[in-house]
What we know:
Helix content: 40-55%
Distance between the termini: 69 Å
Shape: elongated
Oligomer: single chain
Number of helices: 19
Strand content: 15-25%
Mean pLDDT: 79
Radius of gyration: 37 Å
Largest sheet: 8 strands, mixed
Strand order of the largest sheet: 6-5-7-8-18-17-15-12
Amino acid sequence: MKTAIKWKYIKYLFWLGPILIIMGLSAGVVAGSWGPLPLALIMAGVIISVIWLFSEPTVLKGFLGSRSTQAGTNALAATLAVLVILGLINFLGVRYSKQVDLTENQLFTLSPQTQEVLQNLEQPVKVWVFAITPNPNDRRLLENYQRQSNQFSFEYVDPQARPGLARDFGVQQAGEVYLERGENRTFLQQIAQEPLSERRITNAVGQIASDRQPKVYFLQGHGERALEPGQGSFSQALGSLGDENFVAEPLNLAENPDIPEDTTVLVLAGPQRALLPPEVTALRNYLQRKSGLLLMLDPDTDPGLGALLQDWGISLDDRLIIDPNGQTAGVNAAVTIVTQYGVHPITEEFGDGISFYPLARPIGVTETSEVEASPLLLTGDRVQAKPIPESGELNFDPNLPPQGSLTLGVALSRPVPDEAPQAEASPSPAPSPSPEASASPTPSPSPEASASPDADEATEAEDDETASETRLVVIGNSSFATDGLFEQQLNGDVFLNSVNWLSQQDTQVLSIRPKEATNRRIIMTPRQQITSALTALVILPVLGFGAAILVWLRRR
C-alpha cells in the first residue's frame, strides 16, 4: 500500500526535471559562463527526467512505440545528419578555401604578375589599413592576396581607437594605407578618394623586397617630350615610373657626353632634331654593355640614328600609317588602332586589348646576326602607309590597296659583347662596328681561360655575361605615352612594360591593367520600353491566368 502511494507521487517529478533544466540554461546564459551551478541544475534535471521515464514503463513504451515518435525520430536524425554535413562543408571550406571567378573579365582574380610576386615572397609583409569602416571590396582584394601567400597579411585599424599605433606610422587622416616588412614601412595610398589598387600593392610589395632603385634617364636637348606637366609632356609616365620604384631623371649629352654608369634604361622620346655625332657615339658605346634603350620616334623626323639602327636590322619608314579603324572609332584616320600584339613578355598579357597611336610610322625589321627581334605592335590588315602631304590632310583612300599588317613596335636583344670588341668599338667614331668586332665570337671562352687554374671563376664570369643582354625597343610613335593618353586603354602598359623589360631586373613587375566590368546595358527607345512594360505587366499575366482557367475547365 505504502509503495503504491510512493510511486503515485513520484510521477509528478516529471515536471521538476524540465524546470531544473530550464533554470540551468537560463543561469548559464545570463551569467555568460557555465559554472558549477548551471551545470548542476542541468544535470539534476536530466537525471530526474530519466528516473521518471523508467518509473513509468507504460508511458515510455507507449511513447517509443507511437507512430508520431518514430516519425519525429526520423526527422530529428535527418536534421542532425544535414547539420553535420553542412558543418563539415563549412569546415572544409574555411580550411581549404577556393574561389571560382565567373566574371567575364576576371574582376575578382589577381593578375598573373601579382600571383608571381606573392609566390616569390621570402619574408612576411603586412598591409595596415587605417580606416574606421572597412570597405568590403578592399577587404576582398586583401583576402585574395592572403590566399596566395602565407607571407602576406593585413589588418584594419581604427586610428581613433588606437592612436598610438597611428602615431607610429605617421597617419595624418583616416583612410591611409601602409605596407610593412620588418622595420621598413611604406605609404601606399589614401583610400578615402579611390579604392585600394592592386597595381600599387603589387608594385610596393616588389619594391619593399628590393633595396635597389633602378634609374631611367630621359634624353633631352633635341626637342624631346617635356618632363614637366603640360600638353604633350611625359609627367604622367614619370609618376607611374616612380610608383614602380624607378628613379627618372633628365640627361643632356651635350653637357656630359658620357652616359652615367648607373643608367638602367635610357629613353629617347620624340626627338625633333638629329642627335650630334658624339651623342650617337655615346649611344653606340652604351649598347656595348648590359643596357636598355627605348626609342620612340615620330614620323617626319630624323633623329640621326640610321647607322645605329642598321646595326640592329631596323629601318625607319618615312610614311605615315593611315588606319580606317581610326575613322570607325570616331577619332581620325591618322590614329592607328592596335589590337594585335607579338608573343613577347612586354605584350603577353594584352590579349586583344586596345592601344592607339596618333601619327605613327612603320618600322622595318630585317634579320641580323646575333640579334633576336620580336614584333610588339602590329596594325590591322587594311591600313595604308602614305607620305605626309604638304596640305596636311590625311584620309583613308578606299581605292588604294592596303599595305597589309605593318609593324609599329619591335623589341630586340643581343648578347653583351666581350671586352675586346667593346674596347675596339668604343673609340671608333665610325657609324658601323669594326670588322674585328663584327667577326669576333661572343659566347665562347678563350683557351687560356679554360686552361688556367681559375677556370671556375672564368666559367662563372662567362655565365654572367651570357645572362646579360643589351636590349632595344623601337616604337614609331611617342604621343601614345603623353599626358592625357597615357592612362587610356593599354597605352601606359606598353610604355611601362617596355621599361621594365629593358631594365633586366631579377624580379620584374610588369604593369597591371585595371580590370573593368563589361558594359552590358541595354539602351531601348521609348517605344521599346512601352512594349516591354506591356509584355511584363499585361500580356504575360493574362496568358498565365488564361492557361490556368483552361486547365481548371478541363479537369472539371
